[in-house]
Amino acid sequence: MARKASSTAKPAPGAPQAAEESVTLAQKYTTELEDLAAQARTDGAMTTRLAPYVKCFAVLSLLGVLSNASVLSLSPVYGGIPSGIYHTKILMAGCFVGWSGNVAFRDILPRGLRADQLLPVLVAYVPLVQFMLFRFSDKLGALYGPLLTECLTLFPVAAVTAAFVADELEGAGLPYVPSFIGDAAPGIGSWGVLKGAEVLSRQFLSRNVGKTFVLTRMGLEVLLSGLYAVLSPSKLLLLTAPAFLHTAVLNTHVMTPSATLALNTTLLDQEWMLLDRRESVTGYVSVIESLQRGFRVMRCDHSLLGGQWTVVQGIQVAEPIYGVFAMLEAVRLVDIVKVKDEDASALVVGLGIGTTPSALVTHGIDTTVVEIDPVVHEFAAKYFDLKENNPPVLVDAVSHTAGLVEQGKTYDYIIHDVFTGGAEPVDLFTLEFLQGLSDLLTPDGVVAINYAGDFSLPAPKIVVKTITTVFPTCRIFRESPAPVDLPLGQPDFTNMVIFCLKAPHDKLSFRPARVEDFLQSRSRQAFLQPQHEIFQSDFLGPEDKEILRKNDTRRMDEWHKTTAAGHWDIMRTVLPAQIWELW
């Protein structure tokens, strides 16, 4: 008879152990999920805590870049130095007003609107406001023009930025703040971020401005407006449409073919033509031609690097329009020089349109040009018939000439001709740099140094004293006669050329110019032989003992502000205001 099956089955061997392991794994899995969830909550909280700092860092960095873009955009109309006189004060004032008045500003805003949402709108209108105000530059002048323009553009952006940052940091709190810093920490840190971004972007732009559209003046401002919009999107972005439309269609400062065509259409009505333009490391560079008067000039920001007559009495010519450039060629006329032109060598520091180096090359002299701006060289070759017998050296002159000294190079002639924006590059007039030029001269070599400045200020005397400290025998000539009975305080802005010998001599004298020296040029017939001499005994008194050293150049800055303003006034008499304002 079959055995009755048991109703309770016996567990298989090892089953309890497997069940226990399954429960343990489930518990571990659950624990891990809980840990991950806790970590996610922690990470989310950390992200939430960091978000205000990241946003503040971003808007402060963008303000630092906009600060540089603002000065760059003002420079073609007012010059680099006048554009920067009030710039830092306006930036600081805007930040102070926004930071200290953030609570009041927050109360003024409509409910639900944040301060940062205003920034894309304000920045979008910066090019439009600048364009409109530039039309009044002649009335505003070199000092008040930049002041008013940045008060209506940079100041509000700085104020709103500071108000937003103050609100964000006030709500977020600052961990790990030393007690001795206390409440000042947010402000100090914010200003540090802003200035750091300003310095870094300035260094970057000094090397790369103009290389792409977004690195041009208007391109940079448009890019910044777009970045602000991405950072703080809102319905207010609809208000930026008119500003973007004006910039895209009507703003002649934008570096596009259509804007250039529109600009030329306007200029042709005034019988001017823009031949070319580019933004580069030394500023906004362009070549403009007067169809009525028959000359063309190269412009860099609010100064002229040189010019040529193109037509005289209906005849095509290529004559320099400024006598000082012809006068520099008189280094060949110094009678101590015994070397023939075909055996001589020359170093030219600063190119301009190339009047002087072209003449030296035409005379057969082995000539090397050192010019920091490649666009200046390109335009000189393309539009001013630059003649060369050596490749140009497109680098900073200070470092390059120091390298030439180390190599033991020497030249029979050195032409020192650097000028832009109403002020000389100070580093190129220091005792150390001039000593380097002396080392590069042959024993019987001649140097000609062009200095442009306001003779009513101390700066020209310091420069001349520095030059004569290095070179023992010099003579000084003005481009134009000295004014008679100049009223006290009135500027006396002009060019002077200082001719010097490396070795001491009783006197530096010039041989009479011959027909072949003039290169069939009427301008050289009039200006090659130096005139309007300034005697050192009259120019420098016993009290004039200061010299300019490499580590002591700041004292020239204040004088350069005055010089630049005077130079701006002169430039407005050379070309019509509309030419400067429309770029």
From TrEMBL:
Gene Ontology MF term list: methyltransferase activity; thermospermine synthase activity
InterPro entries xrefs: SAM-dependent_MTases_sf
Gene Ontology BP, a term: polyamine biosynthetic process
Keyword Transmembrane helix among record annotations: yes
Cited Pfam families: Spermine_synth (PF01564)
Transmembrane segments: 56-78, 84-105, 117-137
Region feature (Disordered): 1-21
Protein keywords: Membrane, Methyltransferase, Polyamine biosynthesis, Transferase, Transmembrane, Transmembrane helix
Domain of life: Eukaryota
PANTHER family: THERMOSPERMINE SYNTHASE ACAULIS5
Name recorded for this polypeptide: S-adenosyl-L-methionine-dependent methyltransferase
Organism: Emericellopsis atlantica
Lineage: Eukaryota, Fungi, Dikarya, Ascomycota, Pezizomycotina
